[in-house]
Specification:
Blueprint (H helix, E strand, L loop, with lengths): L8 H18 L17 H12 L5 H16 L6 H13 L3 H13 L6 H13 L3 H13 L7 H13 L3 H13 L6 H13 L3 H13 L6 H13 L3 H13 L6 H13 L3 H13 L6 H7 L4 H13 L1
Helix pairs in contact: 2-3, 2-4, 3-4, 4-5, 4-6, 6-7, 6-8, 7-8, 8-9, 8-10, 9-10, 10-11, 10-12, 11-12, 12-13, 12-14, 14-15, 15-17
Length: 318
């Protein structure tokens, strides 16, 4: 029998290479490193992201302490603060109406060579309005483009309109709104809602309803907050036929009432002596609430209304 010739050296080498590769692939691979690489502690963007995340927990003084601790950690790591850093600090101070501290942050921002922008001044407007210093807020609003060369945006107008309405200066708020409507920065749903709410709380529900009609005609769709302002205005005047008509309109537009809607309705019915109807609304809300629901519990605790409504409901069920 004829023997086969031995394989050439190149084929032998290739065969050995394939065999070793297959063996290597058969061996279990090492597990991935469970600890991902940490960001550079001097990276200002990562520190700013932390500051912004903390600042979103707004309205509580203890979170300001967390923000300041994060800022101190940022400085300790050698990360140089930038405009975003200082804007976040100014905004956090202004949300709590800590005006002196906000001005100090603004001075530190300027001292570091950063020019305040629209976001900076919007934060200052918010702080001045929340602090009740409306004259200073109006002055800052006027001086933004004149003195500092900073343009207004929709937030600038909305903050000032909301602040003026909260301070009882609804006519001034309306003038700001009308001037905004004539300019390049047109009002959106949040601006309209701020003025609608102010008009309702000032007892001008017809004007508020007309304003909602105007916003729809201009292509700005109301949201639940807009309708809640109207519901609150109707309830304060005892116009419950209009309230339920508005609820039907919300349903037709695919907007579901929220807890503020029901709070306005229950409070309004109770305040106008319609305890049984208030109890029925409360009972219907309770059917769709999980036990321990914080919003439902808050609603039931309002001014001992729950006890009166429960008694009325029990009387109807007998």
């Amino acid at each position: 029998m004829r023997r086969l010739p031995p394989p050439p050296a190149a084929r032998t080498t290739a065969l050995r290479s394939c065999t070793s590769t297959a063996a290597a692939e058969a061996r279990p691979s090492s597990p991935p490193d469970p600890s991902p690489p940490r960001p550079d502690p001097s990276d200002v963007r990562s520190h700013n992201a932390s500051l912004i995340a903390l600042s979103k927990r707004r309205g509580c003084p203890r979170y300001l302490g967390h923000i300041l601790a994060a800022f101190a950690s940022m400085l300790k790591c050698g990360a140089p603060p930038d405009r975003c850093t200082y804007n976040t600090l100014v905004n956090a101070r202004c949300r709590l109406a800590h005006l002196a501290d906000a001005r100090a942050e603004l001075d530190r921002m300027r001292g570091a060579g950063f020019v305040p922008d629209t976001f900076t001044f919007n934060s200052l407007l918010l702080g001045l309005c929340r602090g009740g210093v409306l004259a200073a807020a109006c002055g800052a609003f006027v001086q933004m483009p004149r003195r500092w060369g900073v343009h207004h945006d929709a937030f600038s107008h909305t903050i000032l309109i909301h602040g003026l309405c909260a301070g009882g200066r609804v006519d001034d708020a309306r003038r700001v709104f009308e001037k905004m409507s004539r300019g390049w920065c047109r009002p959106g749903v949040h601006t309209y809602t701020a003025l609608v709410d102010g008009l309702c709380k000032d007892g001008r529900v017809e004007d508020a309803e007309a304003l909602v009609g105007e916003m729809v005609a201009k292509g700005v769709l109301p949201n639940v907050v807009t309708y809640n302002a109207l519901v609150g205005g109707f309830c304060r005047e005892g116009r419950f036929v209009d309230v339920f008509r508005l609820l039907d309109k919300m349903a037709a537009e695919g907007l579901a009432p929220d807890w503020w809607t029901y709070t306005h309705l229950v409070d309004g019915l109770y305040e106008h002596g319609e305890v049984e109807r208030a109890a029925k609304v409360f009972h219907e809300v309770g059917k769709h609430s999980a036990p321990g629901d914080s919003d439902y519990n808050a609603l039931s605790d309002r001014n001992s209304i729950f006890n009166d409504m429960k008694a009325a409901l029990d009387g109807n069920c007998k």
